Structure formats: C-alpha cells, structure tokens
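Subject: mismatched residue count in predicted assembly?

I count 657 residues in my input, but I want to confirm that the predicted structure covers every chain. Input:
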Amino acid sequence: MLGNKVSLKLDRLKTNMMSRKAIASLLVAGATIGLSVPAVRSQNPTTIRVDGSSTVFPITEAVAEDFQKQNGGRTRVTVGISGTGGGFKKFCRGETEISNASRPIKAEEMEACKSAGVQYIEMPVAYDALTVVVNPRNNWVNSMTVAELKKIWEPAAQGKIANWSQVRQGFPNSPMKLYGPGADSGTFEYFTEAVVGDAKSSRTDFTASEDDNVLVQGVSRDRGALGYFGYAYYEANKNRLKAVAIDNGNGKAVLPSREAVENGTYQPLSRPLFIYVNAKAASRDDVKQFINYYISNAPKLVSEVGYVALPARAYTLASSHFQQNKVGTVFGGKEAVGLRIEELLQREASL
Amino acid sequence: MQQDLQQVKKIIIRNKLWQAIFAVVGLLSVLVGIITLITLVLDLFIDGLPRLSWQFLTSFPSRKPEEAGILAAWVGTVLVMIVTAIAAIPVGIASGIYLEEYAGKNWLTGLIEINVTNLAGVPSIIYGLLALGLFVYQLNLGESVLTAGLTLALLVLPIVIVTTREALRAVPNSIREAAYAMGASKWQAIWDHVLPYSIGSILTGVIIGLSRAVGETAPLITIGALTFIAFLPDPPIKAEFPYISFSWLQAPFTVMPIQMFNWVSRPEPDFQFNAAAAGVVLICMTLGMNALAIYLRYRIRKQIKW
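Triage response: the counts match. Full output below for your records.
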C-alpha cells in the first residue's frame, strides 16, 4: 500500500520532470532559431528585388516569369506592388534593386536617393495610353477636346457639371456619372496633370476605385457614364466600352490605339513607363543578365500584357545607358506630360 | 370574474402574437446572413471550381491565366500561419493563465485587461504599421515570413488571451479547491486539472483567431508582402548536417488574399476565374481550420469526466 503511494508520487515527479524537459527543449529550439537566423541570412542566394507601380507590374512580372524559367532557377526575382511612390521609398533606402515607375522620379525622391547615396539608371520600357471611355449606348460622344475634359474633371466642376448638356452644346440632357482611379494611383496623377494642368487636382465627387475592373463595370452598366483608365483595360473589354477620341486642341481627334501612340498623335494621354535600376546593383552579374533579358524581350512581352512597345532604337539606347552605367534622370523631377516617343528618345540620348 | 378571465386570455394571446412575430423576425435575420453567405460561396464555387486543378495548386503566378497557379501563395500562407501559431499560442495562453489565475486585483491588472480588450478591436492595418517599425526596421527581421508571422501573431494574441480567460473561468472553482485539498501547488492545480479541462475551448479560440489571420491582407502589404514570387522558401529539412534549416523564416513571401486581389484587378477576364478558384481554396482552408476546432473540442469535451 505504502509502496504504491510512493511509486505514484515518483510517477508524478517523473511526469513533472518530463514536462520540464519539454519546456527546456522548446527554449533551446527557440534560441537556436534566434541564433541561426542572422547566420542563415548571409548565406541566402542573391535575389533581385523589384517593387513599385502596379501599372508596370504586369510587364516586369512577365519578364521575371520568363527569365526565371529560362534561367533554371539560378536567379530569383520577386516583384511587389507598393505604387510608384512607395516603390521609390524602398528603392532609395536600398531595399530593392529595381523600381517600377509609371512616371519619372520626382524631385523629392531624387533628394531622398541622393542623401542615401543611391544612384540609379533610368530606363523607359513601354508606353501606356490612358483611355477615356463611355458606355457603348452613348451615341452622342465620339470625340472630346482636352478643354472639354478639363471642364468635366477640374476641381471647379465639383457638384456643378453633372449633365452632358453642360459639356457641349448639342449634347442631350442626360445625367453624367464619372468613374476614375483613386488618388493614390499614377494614372490619376498623370491624367490630372495632362488634362487639368496640375497633378492631383481633380473634382472629388466621382466613383473612385483602385481596381480598374470596378471602373470598367461601372461604365459598361451606365449609359451616362464617363471614365478613364489604362489602355490594357479598354483592350480587354472592347465589347463593353466605347473609347473616346481625344482632340489635343488642333482639331484632329485621335482614337487610342497602338499605332496612334507609336506615331505620337495620341496626345496628351500617352505616357512612358519606366524601370529604375540601382547603379550599384547594376554591376552584379545576375542583375545584368536580368536587365539584358528585360530589354531584349520587352517588345514582345510589353504588347502581350496590353501596353505599347517602344521603337527598337529606344531599347538599344536604354541598353547602352545601362552598359555604360549612365546614372540620373532626364526629367529633372518633373512629370513627362505629352511626351512623344521621339522626344523621349532625344532626351534619353542627351544623358 | 368572467371578465377578468377574458382579459387574461387577451393578454396571453397578445403575448403569444409578439412571440410569434419575434420568431419570424429572428428567423429572417438569420436567413439574411445565411443566404448572403450561401450566395457568395456558391457564386465563388461556380466561377472557381472549373479552374481548380492539380496544376493550379502546383504552379507559380504567371501572366497567362491558364498557366497561373497559387503554389507560392498557399505555401506562404501555411508558413506564415505556422509562425503565427508558434508565437501566439504559448504567449497568449500563458498571459491568459496569468491574468486569470495569478494576477491580483489591482490597478495594473485592470490596465492590462482594458488594453487587451481594446487591442482585440484595433484595425489590422495599425498592427501592420507597428510591425513595419518594430520588426522590419528596429529588429531588422526584413520583409520575411518571420515578420509576417509575428505580425499576425500580435493580431491574434488578444483573441487567444480573451478566449483562454473565458475558458479558465468556465472551470468550476471546486476543481481547484479539490486539487488544493489534495496538496497540489497552484501550478499543479492549473497544469494537471484546470488546463486539461479548458483546453478544448482554448483551442477553439486559437483556431478561430488563426482563421481570422488567414484572410488578413492589409498588415502584410504594409510589411512588404510581394505579389509576384516564383520560388518557394528553402525546405526546413536538409540532407546535410544539422538537417534542420530555418532559412525559410527569412524568405520573401506572398499570401493567398494578396494573390487573389492581384488577379481580381487584372484586365483579362480569365484572371477573375483564377481569383475565384483561389477564393475557393482560401474558404476551404478556413472551413478546414474551423472544422478542426469543432472536432478537437468535441474530442476533448468527451474526455472530461465531471
């Protein structure tokens, strides 16, 4: 009887010991994780980190996808979406090797990069055509002038311009519903700069969404709707939308198309898209291979994901900038509004 | 007399009418929730199921909708959840036990309690910002699985603490008193009696907290979750010594909701089906975790003999 009790007690002690051992081993495991983490970090294989604009994302994604397949997994490429501004923040802190940008680098971003000692190579990779769309059942609008667009979108129009008859004489008395991208997007920034004349200055009483498909749906369901977004979304939804030809004040209205962007007649809503490469990282072999792959495959991949490829000369020029490690921007921190491909080339050549 | 009876009957009829009205209103309220849920889930399944295949689960993202898959996303989600569980469960349960069993009733405990309850209601983006400053910049953990897991652990910690306390409170005091009467120390009473009895409810709380974390996007985007990533983190088991590797903790990652959102906002309509299919997988993950919670609770409750 007594022996029984004692052994029970012993058992109890044993289990206690065991649970103590378990806790101790957990602690050891935790410590190992903590200690091994920094060691592991330095052993990591090199990865090319890309971040930035969601507009440029599909291009870089396509390049990264094919590059990694062709490369057999020796080099890793990651692509994030932080927006052009967020991307430059990380880029100037040296957290990424390449930054996707749907506009040239801004003055304050240049300053941030400079103070952090980050130099960069600017490379235009494609053109995008912002497309103004209306509902297919809208039979009164075929073209609009930039002035008319300004009348609709400027801040002064807030709460006042709400009917098509106010835009142009002869337009029917039909309520107008506006759709546009959210204030954080580069598309919004470029459109306001090009149409209103001042970046980010726009009326605010319109349906805004960061998701362009929401805008596509909105415009395709509402006869009185007008909206704008990137050309890729129009091209993928041509049967549900009607593009508006844009008249840049010279009396010639031009519909958005690849040709019109290439020959520079679709103005001022054509905009260049860029990647910025960290100059220090550019000396790395994997980054060199990736950029070379990017430039030589851009023409094919850019049109595949719905943008307009630059002429071959532009890519040669960008490539030679990269080879010669020409750092800096040709835009001096300003938005590149209404810039034709030719002018872009000239500017890039002057670097 | 007769009149009084009449009046009483009237009152009874009126009360019964109210009862019936409330039953109908209650049923309708329940149906609003359930029907919306069923419609959403059905819609998702109709769009997504045809796209669901082995290839979809084992492919990396791609610009071509038919080649794209969610391999990186679901692996990322699972790894992040593992870190979250490892970090949140011990800390959360320990805090719950301390607050419920050990802490005295003073102003400090009161303050902690108020804070914990409030933390449960803090928007998740705030946790993201906190994690960006603390884990990414201060502790220099990088934009990694580890950071993401710890961030989500912070997010579920209040839920774990609160449910642990509820569960401990549900154990009758007589159990503790009986243990003390047998000469058990406080820790013995908790470890051998109170915890085993409440572990079912605690687990339920933990898993519900984790299923909330599975769907979180905002805090992970803040700390730098990626959108395109076409490789997996290093496996945790290696062929050479020391056989275990923790480098996956440092790996860049993406998670299911971020992949879904990226596909939803693509111009090509086919990506919408991919997004729906990813949604189906995510729902199955959440439902699976909830089912596990229910099963565990059932199993453990059955063993309780009081």
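The two ends of chain A are 97 Å apart (CA to CA). Marking this ticket as 'not a bug'.
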